[in-house]
Task: structure prediction
Amino acid sequence: APASTEEGGEEDPPPVAILGNLPYNVGTHLLLKWIRCIRSRAGIFARPVPLVLTFQAEVADRIVANVGTKAFSRLSVMTQHCATVKRCFNIAPSAFVPAPNVNSTVLRIDPLPQPLTDVPIDVLEFVVRECFLLKRKVIGKAAAGVFGVHSKELLKAAGISPQQRAEQVELHQWCALAEAFVAHRSAVLLESKDKR
Result:
């Protein structure tokens, strides 16, 4: 049970950090799970909890990537919309026994006081994932496969040009696109109820 102060209240829980040398095959899965916890403020994530994690270098590059670079990806958006990410240092294969065939990178991930959007994380992940599936295509084509005939309307609401590619879309625009999708879906539901 939490310790009590002299005034009879509960003390703040002690500072917590998550440190991990993650297995390469589950690193992405664990990161996305923790991102969900950060967004929901579940458990120890009720307060900001820094994460210092080791990833395969290629995965780390995608997490820290800036908008407009080839490495910018779904992982970049999902992590950076609710946390700051800093590359700490690289680790050569020779540091491990047995030595892997790839380089590793240590990242520090610090949750933001507030995420860039309040849209449900499942919705944001859906929108980002589906649009990045056709990363080599302009986002207008990718969005058409996700939003159908309403794709141009939703892209315009988010300030995104249909000629942009997914890696060129800014973080705030991804958030705005997910918000526009939620608003559109709510409007459709209300309209269908009115017709009953």
